[in-house]
Amino acid sequence: MRVAAPFGRRRVTVTGARDVGAYRVLHVADPDGPVPWPGQFYMLAATQRWGAGHDERPFLPRAFSFLQAADGRLGFMLEDVGPGTRRLCELAAGDELWLTGPLGSGFTPPNPTPPNRRAILVGGGVGIPPLAAWADGLAGSGLSVDALLGFRDAAHAEGARLLGAANVRVATDDGSIGHHGLVTELLSAELDGDAAATVYACGPPAMLEAVRVLCHERAVDAQLALESGMACGFGACFGCVVAVRDGGYVRVCVDGPVLDAARLEAVPAH
Q: What's the rounded Cα separation, in Å, for the pair 9 and 250?
């Protein structure tokens, strides 16, 4: 599913920011933008100090799936992992942001034939935002929505609180909260118990590849929101291509970021 973006970038105002464990949630006002579809993304850049100065390296905008969209306001979840995300995490209410989007294609509802009564959302770290938006989108659909989320530790696992519209189980690498191990171990157990589900996943490539293999082995429908470094976000630079099973390539920014797992031979590492 896709909502078309207006032409060009928009200058928007930050309305608030808060910390959620190890993450930063940023809210911006976008009253003139269209309502995005879960799984779509935006290109973000600060209007001030975004390159060309001392120790300022970003220059290009950064791609982020939206976390929430309601009443002319968008939410994004960030983690400070480099100069671009660090600058965005510094923004506070009243600051301004360049925003382009919504871009790409998002999730699609489960195939009703055969009837899938359950959606399983599988996320890792900063892969949470599109799943949170999709959980909100599935509310009232009659589907049971379960979320399996993997994090490094308890501080990062605070991000699970952002999925308020799903039944959430957590796994951590260090065992500080929830299941001690990989989130895909939780998924394997869920599918072994009941494979009548559609899986939606977003997270690091190794996790997505494990999800793809698990679902392929069990003939379970899966949609993967791929992560990729992007220079433009609208298909011009061909910097985010991935190979597909039937030959050729697709661009994550325009053909994705959400792709049917069955189209992929493998999820490529960054």
A: 24
pTM: 0.93
The closest of 266, 222, 262, 225 to 242, measured between CA atoms, is: 266
**How far is CA 36 from each of CA 59, 101, 182, 202, rounded to the nearest angstrom?**
25, 8, 31, 17
Strand, coil or helix: 60: coil
Percent with pLDDT over 90 in the chain: 67
Q: Look at the chain and report how many structural domains it folds into.
A: 1
Convert the pLDDT of each residue in 131-142 to its tens digit. Answer: 999 999 998 777
pLDDT grade for 238, boundaries at 50, 70 and 90: confident
Domain that includes residue 62, residue range? 10-103
18 is a domain residue: yes
